[in-house]
Amino acid sequence: MLIGREDVLRRLSDLLRGPQSSAVLVGMPGAGKTAVLAAARGAAAGAEVLSVTGILSDRTLPYAVLADLIPDRQLVDSITGDPPHPLRLRLDVLAWLETEAETRPVLIVLDDAQWCDDTSLSILGFIARRLGGTNVRFLAACRDGEIPPALRGLPTVSLPPLDEHDAARLLKGAGVELTGATLPRVLDRAGGNPLALIELGRAAAADPRAEALPTTVELAFAARLRALPAETRQTLLLVARPPG
Fold this sequence. Notes:
Blueprint: H1 6-16, E1 22-27, H2 33-43, E2 48-53, H3 64-69, H4 73-80, H5 86-100, E3 106-111, H6 118-128, E4 136-143, E5 156-158, H7 164-173, H8 182-190, H9 194-206, H10 216-226, H11 230-240
Parallel strand pairs: 1-4, 1-5, 2-3, 3-4
């Protein structure tokens, strides 16, 4: 059961059923974007779901995501072999989707869009802006601050941190029982991030001293920080320094 994401799912559903028929879900690493996408797929009763996840190592492979997304091998071969004119290519994919959607709705679900190849994203972004009046829906997810250029301007929904009540429910639902001052410490350090909550909660339940270890979320942010220019890192350090 997804905890504390009812409003997000409702907003996504409204956008997908609206005139633009598309939405981009954004959130920090560990915020639960993949879980929300899974819930959206589960709610698409009777629809044909075309789902793919971006892989960082495939990011430089032209049309890699599109080849994994489209089950029509003839269309894929025409794309990856000797692709037609860029506009013709986009119109061909859109026409194929519209044909698929004549018998039942089609939902495109794209996870980790920040790691998808640019060639596929340019086509999917083109399609996502032209779904009005069709039976095709487009839903993507990516890290906060890393929306690919091809998807910018599409309706966006942000995944907020869990409040303390939902954070405690998540821990309980995961079988993590914390007592005394341990629970408030874990809730404070996790900051409402579901992945950090589970990692910190399990570590604290096993050994309170393990709370000092960095979480996957913290390591992800550290990697993003290291990728910034030295001047930007220095500025962030100065801003984070406590007064006095």
